Amino acid sequence: MTTKPEEANGSRKRKPRPQGLEDWRQWPNYEAATLGLRNYWYPTVWARDLGDKPQGIKLLGENIMLIREGSEVYALHDRCPHRGVKLSEGKKVFPGTVSCPYHGWTFDVTDGRLCAALPDGPDSPIVGNVSVRSYPTEEALGLVWVFVGDEKPTPLRDQLPEELFTNDYVAGGRITPGRYGNWRFAVENGFDEGHARYLHRDQAFMMFRQMPGWARTKIVADEDGDWLFRVQESVEYESDFPGLGKWPRRKITQVAQRKMTPGEVGKRLDPTIRSLNLPGHISVRLPGLLRVAWTTYLHFEWYVPEDENHHRYVQYAVRFKTGPSDFAFRLRYWTYIRWLFHGKFTGRDAWMVEEMDAPPERLFRPDVSITRWRRLVESAFEPKQDKKKPAPAKKP
Asked: Which of 111, 170, 254, 291 counts the highest number of beta carbons within 10 A?
């Protein structure tokens, strides 16, 4: 073996690798957002499931108690200031209140003010001098939303897809609390360009769909810069890999093929979905919402931070039909979509999010979807006219 001169004297050195290629230092705000982004609305529970019995949840590292009083929903910090017991373990003793299960400290659910300390009598001097934090809440899309942040809440509608307010539809959904994995891994997996072509190829939900082997994709933003879209510029369904052979092999069941590239949409595409003029069929926006345009319905995923290692996973399928189609879609959802898509299919994503351990990492060409998403989060911290600056959630 010929030895190069610089090797012989030991002077040959590796070229220094630019910092940030294997870690997240080039995205400092993203790296800091372990517990999520503050000053946003987050979906929590189904509105139909919340009554006058308090429920405890965790959002952005904060314990929060939810309770319904009449037609309104309220949220308080889920910790009694007396000895730190969770208020969600208590009950409603008086209308409009919740009482701690330990010593009966009783708080007004509308503002968190202590209005009674039952074992200390009606004239307890602590009353009026203690309160717990309250959080803004709203109900929309059949869900209870909680605003977590230090600024005045923006209108919830500004944060949600407009098509959910301007069209009639029927919906089905699934909420999975305590899903393991940091919320950022979950968003990255959802918007990831390459994993579906391999990870999901053999799943039952894809049995009658011809999956591409690979594609060349670019990421584009909408006019307002709120949404990022995956736009496929070219698609290959089978290729020769030098020294290895052809991959993937087309399965006999994959007889249906649907392409959602600019100017090339399925003939069965729902008219309402077509009218949205989406550049690509998968898109993402802050603080962690994914939208997937299937042929006849839209699928949404919210990745709601709970703590460093868990997130609440909200899935929501929407069909823009009413009347007889209402029942047909509900039947399809409960017998097919909920089982194969919202269960088995995304369950494999949950497996990967749980296994993910990054950084360090080495990205490749399809990961442009991930890097653009990270840049979107970073850009949210830049001063913008008429836009609030979010903040990473801090550890409690």
From this structure: 291
